[in-house]
Structure formats: structure tokens, C-alpha cells
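>> received
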Amino acid sequence: MKALRIVQLVLLVGLVAYLVMMHNANPTNLILPFMLPLPPVAVIVVALIVGWLVGWLPSRLTLWRKKREVRGLQKKIAELEQHVPRYDQTDDSTDTPVIPDRERTWSMEAQASAETR
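>> returned
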């Protein structure tokens, strides 16, 4: 992750250097339709910001939607887990697990006592 930050920083420094060179090389302003005369650097910066927003907003909205879906699914799982019977319960007489909907039989008790001997 650190290498990615270094690459981003190098690209940002390069972009700033390019914008400074562009500003110094083109002292005249650009005249865009329906706008005031603007320096080329301002046009490039606005274009970069708009491009970044066009890429960032859809991904952020998708992430927001996925997080909301995950929260809903986690709530549903928690709700469904309340209705699941617990199978880790044991009978008080031995440490062998017992299936909750079945009775402990004599043969099971004999087998449990034989195992402990």
C-alpha cells in the first residue's frame, strides 16, 4: 500500500509541474463559449476535477448501496439465528452431547458409562 501512495505522490508532483509549465508557456487566456476568459491551467484543473468526480461518484454510490445491502443481510442473519436450535447443549449427567429432540436412552447411558471406565 505504501508503494501506491508513493506513485500517487510522484504523479501529483508531475501534474503540478506540468500545470506550472503550461501556465508559463501560455500567458494568454482561453475564451470558451458562454464563459469568461480563463487561463489554460484553470481549464485543465477543472477538467481534472470533473473527470475525477465522474469516476469517483459512481463507485462511491455503488459502495454505499453494497454497505446498505450488507447491513440488511447481517440484520436478517441475526434475526434468523435466533430461531436456530442450539446443538451444543449437553445432558447434566454426562459430557456427551444429546440431540435436543430425542430422549436419552438406557443404551446411550450404558455406552457413556462404558467409555468413562
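>> Residues 2-87 form one domain.
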